[in-house]
Amino acid sequence: MIFNLSIHHGPRYPIVIGTGPGSLADLCAACNFAAEAGLRTGRNYLVVDFLAVDISLSDVERKTLGQHSAQQFVHLSKVALVMQPEFWNGVAEATAREAGLDIRIFHTLETATTWLNADPGATSR
After folding, report:
1. Which pTM was predicted?
2. Most C-beta atoms within 10 A of its C-beta, which of 5, 31, 47, 82?
3. Where do runs of H (alpha helix) occur along the chain?
């Protein structure tokens, strides 16, 4: 199967959408792609929609992903990651948050966008 990324440029923040099986290399590359989307559009918030991504990583890989996410998203104020509950164990999120990233995990796109839209700071920098 193929891991795919696409982007929707919303009025307040980009939404990066992934599909397929995601290895550590795929997910780190997705962070790079998503970080550029936020940076190049001048937005300080980002949604990463991984509802259709199959994530099978070890805890060590998840820590690596959390560190990489924090490094790539350093210019963003908030990141909302949407994923299936069965693929979430909190390791990558905790690692990213410990590194200073304001990231939250959601299981629906609606709750993720509600969190971002509740803050008037979701605008251009």
Report:
1. 0.91
2. 47
3. 24-40, 59-72, 91-98, 109-117
HSE-CB for 10 with a 13 A CA cutoff: 18
Kindly list the domain boundaries of the chain, sorted by start residue.
4-117
Does the domain made of 4-117 have the CATH classification 3.40.50.2000?
no
Rounded to 5°, angle at Cα 120 from 117 and 124: 100
CA-nearest of 104, 101, 100 to 115 is 104
Walking along the chain (125 residues) 10 residues at a time, the average pLDDT comes out as 94 94 96 92 93 95 96 94 92 95 96 90 57
65, 105 Cβ separation under 8 angstroms? no
